[in-house]
Amino acid sequence: MKRIISILLALSIILGLCVPAFATEKEEECNGLPVIIVRGMDFAGLYHDYGTENQRSVLEVDAGEIVKTVFAALGKLVFTFSVDSAMDVVLDYAYSLLEGFSLDNQGKSVYDLGQPKYPLSADNYEELLPGTEFEMGMVRRCIEEFGNGHTYYINYDWRLNPFDVADEINAAVQTAIKTTGHDKVNIVCASMGGIMTMAYLNEYGYKNVNRCLFMSSTFCGAQIASDLLTGKIEITAENLFNTVMNLVADNKILSFLIDELNDFGIFHLLTKVTDFIVENYADDIYERVINPIFGHTLTLWGLCQQEDYDEAVKFMFGDKLEENAEFIKTTDKLQKMMSEKEEFLNKMIDDGVEIAITAHYNAPLVPVYKSASFNGDGILETYQMSGYATVANYGETLGDDYVAKNPEYLSPDKVVDLSTALFPEYTYIIKNAPHVGCSYGTDYSDFLVWLLTYDGEFYAGASEKYPQFMISDSSQSLKPF
Questions:
Q1: pLDDT per residue over 191-212, tens digit each?
Q2: Cα–Cα dist 131/140, whole Å
Q3: Are 386 and 221 in contact (CB under 8 A)?
Q4: pLDDT tens digit string along 8-24?
Q5: Region of 33 on the Ramachandran plot (φ > 0 left; ψ -120 to 50 alpha; else beta)
């Protein structure tokens, strides 16, 4: 017996001496904490009959069908002199194009849709490896930077309850922890991934989170959702002109022609037509397309600004409040989460979780809603992306006489003042950067890695290379403002 005990003791000592060696070897192989990338909205990423030979995208835009619809509408207008008949053609086509996104009054998908899911680390999926743009660029760079098994990619149905997506994020977090042996992860949430990540943090807490990066995100909602849900459809000549000019900005000839057309009043003429349509057919547009397709999209209700929420409920549901009571209970929960975000995130920071926020500006927004004159990155408004900074409208400044509460938080061109933002000390403002950014092989991609790996005091401007205010060029090269 003594001999057996002696052997066991000897083995224990040997194993004990080996543990540090094994730990060192593992540490050398591991380049950092696992990264959970929560992507933004992928409007074209849902499929009917997913995974079968009949798989097809929910959104199938056929140029031929569009031309056919335009001529059919014009035919109705010319031969019947009826704008109503022409609009019927257009609205029927719009509904048929978007019908697949429909949800019932519980916020559940009417159709059985699917999309790719990636429960294992991203390096296990060949289709993710060559990515270059936006979130795909993030995935590729993180795999290369942190090694296999350390990057997880959350692809989800953007229409559904963010609290359901939170379950998917948690599953990835737990898988990453179990697989890598780390007890914490870093989260990168892009665009609509912001509200999904907020739902995860609220539902599951942040004990497993080391750092959270909000990249052009919706952690403070989106004004476009508020305007859509309150009926504020509006197309102005100025916003339309700004959008078109932005699209042709790299072509001097086209830019000149568009500018000349604007001087001749072509955009004012176009908006007279759109004004007529909005004024006379807005109710039809909502009743026949927006309400049945997007009226029960829970994510949009989460993105709706708190000050617009009650108006949105009345506008969208009117005398149908009772039949939508269960749905409204869910939207109330989302609104409660968003209304408490500042207190929640402050507590998270106090408990040791580090955050960074990036917001972009100097691109016009989609010119179909009242607040489209806001500054933005072409997709979302800088005001919400930055956590409520004071931001001049697109093409304007805050004025030469404007005085910021804290001058250090005012952009050099006097367009953005971070003094009013929720977390100015953790917020980066980047002029001219595209929505999300982070394309593979760019300076912005390097910036992402720096945000994930920097080991010093973590605040905006901690690095001379990446100051709080930066400028991006078309290739996403960054430089100090």
A1: 999 999 999 999 999 999 999 9
A2: 6
A3: no
A4: 333 333 334 343 333 33
A5: beta
